[in-house]
Amino acid sequence: MENKGTKFLVIILIILILIAGGLMAYKIIKNKDKSETQEVSENENVENILTAEIEEKKINIFKGNDRPIAVMIDNHNLAWPQAGLNKAYMVYEIIVEGGETRLMALFKGQNVDKIGPVRSSRHYFIDYVMENDAIYAHYGWSPLAQSDISSYGINNINGISESTSVFWRVKDKSAPHNAVTSTEALLKSAKSKGYKTTSNKESILNYVTDEVKLEEGQSATTVTIPHSTLQKVRYEYDEENKVYKRYARNKSQNDWDTGYAVTTKNIIITFCDNYNLNDADNVGRQGLKNIGTFNGYYITNGKAIKIKCTKEARNLQTKYVDLDGNEIDVNDGNTWVNICPTNANVNFN
Question: What one-character-per-residue DSSP string does 179-219 give?
């Protein structure tokens, strides 16, 4: 009987040991699973944070594969105010006849209901159309611009030959300073002509997400650019919003519809000379000596540095480098490129 009792106790003890071991193993496995689940969860959280940081650091001003649209904008004082300039990622200002300047605004992936007033093309603007791989919208053209558009096979939309659904005239300005368009109308016209509306061409400018402060630059809270005796441009730095407000002929330039000031994050100045063309019309149209390497400035956040601007051919992208030959970093924001004569007395304050 004692042997049977002892055996029974031993069996019970073994069973209890097995149960205890099983419970312990279960807890270990459960804790391990919990730990692994927690680790996976933590890893996912880290990945989500990193992804969010990457998303946050993406360039906003130049993104996606929408093909840019370049629109010629009237800059005569009777055309002021203009519409759509604040939604352009890049605006070129270059002299035309009579000491006036004309603007070419580039839009990418933007829905802009009103752009204008739209004016006619000049042949040297085509160089900047090509280097941006843009669809070119204008209302009329000079003889040389017409010839070059044909020679270079530029995808263009000419308001003179378009319907009033693509370009239309408004009543609050007088002709020829009252033709306007929209990105939607231009894209619809481009598609009907069989133009490609996507592009993989990289940006001309090296945009960066970290703020460019130009620590070694000279002070540039006010920048004055005399394109001619008639057209003097001034940019005033708004320190609170970190943008420059634009003035022309001592008048603040504001948006036609919103009334907001026309502003820019970046300014590029390129010094290259214009000259009189001897064309059949003899109205003082201009040419531009823009092939080669030219002096210039890059201006942002209240500072300016000297740069070199090199364009090796009409259809090649302009390279903007510092005086050590390094491509300049440009703030993620819109840019005005002011192309002015080499003897222009540009002033910084």
Answer: EEB-HHHHHHHHHHTT---B--PPPSSEEESSPP--TTSEE
Report phi then psi at 39, rounded to 5: -65, -45
Q: Which residue has the tokens 């945009």?
A: 207
Burial state string for 242-264 with b = 16 or more CB within 10 A and e = fewer than 16: ebbbbbbeeeebbbbeeeebbbb
DSSP classification of residue 110: -
Report yes or no on 209 lying in a domain. yes
* Surface-to-core class of residue 53, CB atoms within 10 Å of its CB (0-12 exposed, 13-18 middle, 19+ buried): exposed
Q: What's the predicted TM-score (pTM) here?
A: 0.85
d(Cα 181, Cα 160) in Å, to the nearest integer? Answer: 12
Residue with tokens 């005796």: 229
Tens digit of each residue's pLDDT (9 = 90 or more) over 114-145: 999 999 999 999 999 999 999 999 999 999 99
The C-alpha atoms of residue 269 and residue 288 are separated, in whole angstroms, by 15
* 228 within 8 A of 222, measured Cβ to Cβ: no
Task: Assess whether 292 and 237 both reside in one domain.
Answer: yes
- 225 and 290 in a single domain? The answer is yes
Domain enclosing residue 41, as ranges = 1-56
Strands 263-264 and 329-331: unpaired
Confidence of residue 11 (pLDDT cuts 50, 70, 90): low
324-329 long-range contacts, CB within 8 A, separation 24+: 327/206, 328/206, 328/298, 329/206, 329/207, 329/208, 329/212
How far apart CA 278 and CA 287 sit, in angstroms, is: 10
Query: Based on C-alpha coordinates, what's the Rg of the chain?
Result: 31
